[in-house]
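Interim report, section 4.2 (structural modelling).
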Amino acid sequence: MHTPIGLPWELLLSAVVLWSVVALASLLIPHVPRMAPAIFPLGALGALLTAGAGVLALRGPPISTVSPLGLPGLPFHGRLDALSGLFLLLFGVTACAISLDLAGYRAREHYPVASRIGLQYHILLASLALVFVAADAYSFLIAWEVMALSSYFLVVTDHHTPVVRSAGFLYLLIAHVGALAILAAFAILAAHAPAGAPLALTFSALRATDPDPAVAGLVFILALIGFGAKAGLVPLHVWLPEAHPVAPSPISALLSSVLLKVGIYGLLRVAFTLLPAPAPWWGLITLAAGLGTALSGALLSAVQSDMKRLLAYSSIENIGLIVAGIGLALLFSAYGLKAFAALSLIAALYHCLNHAFFKGLLFLGTGSVLHATGERNLGRLGGLIHRMPQTAFLMLIGTLAIAGVPPLNGFVSEWLTLQAFLKATALPRPYLAMGIPLGAALTALVAGLAGYVIVKFYGIVFLGRPREAKLAQAVESGPFERAGLGLLAALCVVTGLWPAGVIALIRPAAQALTGGEAPVTAGDHGARIAVAHAGYAPPLLWLALGIIALVGVLVLRLRSSGPARRAPPWNCGHPVAGARLQDTAEGFGQPIRHIFAPFLDIKCRRPGLDDPEPRYEAAVNDRFWEGLYRPLARGFEAVFAGARVLRPRRIAISLLYVLAMLVALLALTP
Amino acid sequence: MTHPTRIIDLLAALFLLVAFAMLSQRRLANLITLYAWQGTVLALSIAILAYETGNTHLYASAILNGLLKILAIPALLRRLARRLDVQWDRESLVQIPTVMLIGLGLVIFAFNAALPIAGLAHTVNHETVGIALASVLLSLLMMILRTAALSQVIGFLALENSLIFAATSVTGGMPMVIEFGVALDVIVGVFILGVFFFHIREQFDSLDLDRIEGRED
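Predicted structure of the assembly:
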């Protein structure tokens, strides 16, 4: 029996099947090396199919389907609605660029490694696609776990190093804590189904359960913890700065661009579609968590000296901004201000897209730099713009986008977030109406810090002079890598210059979640907030900036005395000019370390007077390690040291425990 | 009550009887024979359940169980026992009457505990649930009381038999049952490998076996 399931589903399922086949085919790479070049381009094709399915789902009505797979009486349910569509689009486009990059990156690897990455990577892609369309708790959790495990194996690709293994373990541990919280959230919700109904597992049945406010609040908190662990909310963010640096760069890009967004997707799915109308405190907690995350991420990224660790903390900061937007949306929904809720959600979702694009771009570019130089430490890089001009240009686009410079996409979503914050004056409680707009100031501070961080990143890596002799051997990255970078850079430019189109894409998702029509109108090729009459039109801005620049150049030309003269750069009067006189990552971060010293845990190493090789080093540790995780670990150790007393010395005694437990449980059953 | 149901009742009673016999048997060779009998009863009852419910995949389960538990595993265990030269060793059990009394108590408890489960089960007979549960508990008891590695393994195998018996009698033949059966058989295979492991240990270092077994005190 064949019933049509709709074009979006057909596209999506063919992508999943394609990825599964490619994953299995990857196993054969060591035996049939000839097919190695086809593996990752085929994966990119699957990603494009997924993106197509996402666009169709955003445009069309939701389509549900029940798959014949699954346990008897417990089939997999799927539903493609606007929210799934948006995240599928984000995932498909980003994964396409990452697959292209991998096609180049992995061509140079040994076959066994390429084979393992090909297997796990395509399994991860398939499970990600399924997470976004699963419509019952059971298949959602299966896809979720497959995603967590396959990404774990990708993180520990270089498993011969202890650092990599311990980072992978931390990742796995926090992923499991999060999965347990999610499982508990679903179970509690299912347990409150109306009496007599069959076990509520599908999302539509879970939505029909009408839990009382306390239960709904508990479920929300559990979901926030569970999905927050995946997204990297403080204090569950500690895996990010450990796992990102050790994973291969394209995998870091996928982790940062897509896997963190899965957490956001899950939070939106549970908070807006499974639970009843939110209570105000949900929004406040989420907002506080988001702003706290954004601020700690920005601060900590400002003081890092490892490229990928810096980007990882910057991802935490961006996730914080997104979650703050979701918090605002919850708060507005709680007070029935649906239009503003939709506006905040559009801001958050827009930022999701943007972050996926520019962070993917930066991580892929970092991978190219890492491959060309073998160096992750900012203190040993520099001057790469001369060696890798095209990569440097594409990275510049990503840098400007993440810094929120106007014609690019980062500005649009930050502007929308700020607008949403300012709309909080409409809240009916005076404290909230006056207090929340202050969050706008915090957001601005975070955006400023983000700009500072990224100037440091780009300046130290690409500008100035090479800090090490071996950097002279760096070469431009291959055509596949540049294609991946170029795709993401183009997306950054397009989503920046054409906000009206992007908002039109996102609007159905935000509308479906909040039930409100966002007061954002698309006119003048830009965005306009209907209520406050604030507008942003990139073409106009572009024009104005262009005119100012032109006038500036003309004035300078007219006033300068003659043609530019080439001369050695001024060396500040210092007799020896060397690359080590340049500003370093530590030096650049020093003001931040100084200003925010109470929030940071800094270990400095200052050179002594008679040091033959003077070097200044400053390592900044995450305060959450000493403040939260170590005490927790010590507590667990103490508890289990106590439990050791109970451990039997004879097998018979432990079997007796089993029997006693079984009998006790059977006796307790009503 | 139909004839097949009565036969299943009879087989369930036999199953319980074999469980008691295993509990009190001191010699390993006899224990293995008893285990083969238990497998026979299990396979027969699954086959009759298949006839009763008309579920063809239960026949597959019956054949699978029969092959494994009447022929393969007992033969393997016998060979092991011969090699280790432990088949006629007498195990020092706790007083057998006491063991039997504890077993009786467990059976009564199991029947009480099975009442609510039996009510839910859409099966041919409700008493079989209680019997299956009782056999699970008896097998556990057997594992506790045994001191030799091989007889402990047989206790574990008997536990697995009882679980399969419980599964078929409660769910009355779902495709899941076959999956469970096969999965558990895999575990059994692993366990038998574990015996090989013990075997190697004993050849090289018998003290270590004592330590693992906890017989040093």
